Amino acid sequence: MTRKERWQSLLDLLVEHGELEVEPTAETLGVSAATIRRDLDQLAEQQLLVRTRGGAVLHGVSYELPLRYRTSRRAAEKHRISEAVAALITPGEVIGLTGGTTTTEVARTLAGRPDLATGSPALTVVTNALNIAGELVIRPQFKIVLTGGVARPQSYELTGPLAQQVLGQLTVDTAVVGVDAFDPADGAATRHEDEAAMNRLLCERARRVVIAADSSKLGVRAFARICPTRSVHTLVTDTGLPDAVASSFEAAGVEVVRV
What we know:
37% of the residues lie in helices and 24% in strands.
């Protein structure tokens, strides 16, 4: 197990249990207690957790992993989803991308498509995600429109009145939206109201709304609503989505693509 994988496992365990003790954690991960102590010290230096005498606890009551530590979760599923979402986009479109690990993978897949290697522009990408804009801006065939706003360190997203003011003046062909939850009855949602407001506005400004989400986020609810299910045209997810949940989405008018 590499250090990156070990850190990811530690953070996942911490989110699940709320606290960690060195000795049991070392046994769970199959490494020495000294290695776990060193890992916890280094994660504490990055303010991702708080060290205690015998282990670690969550950093504050609103703990959320920064984006860079969530990219390895369900990586295979996210890769397949990104390929399927990218295939829905045609050259010359204006697309909107919210922040998140899955939408970041969509951006990378689009950047690698041979048929989007040239054009003026090959795509116009509207995003409030600093990391997505940073990855795509080096490709001259893409026109990148970045909203203003206040940056959230956890997700690299720009939110707030400035971001909404810019986005409210634009129209996009396809909005690709990342979510924390999507339920047939309750619609799409996220944990944070500021992100939900931006994502909601992007959906309103789009002719087509595509939700890209792995199956762990489906059939569940989250705090802040983005949009009702009827506003979503296509859901792209993995084959872990149960047939019954897929049928509920389809009954609500959503095209379900499982990859």
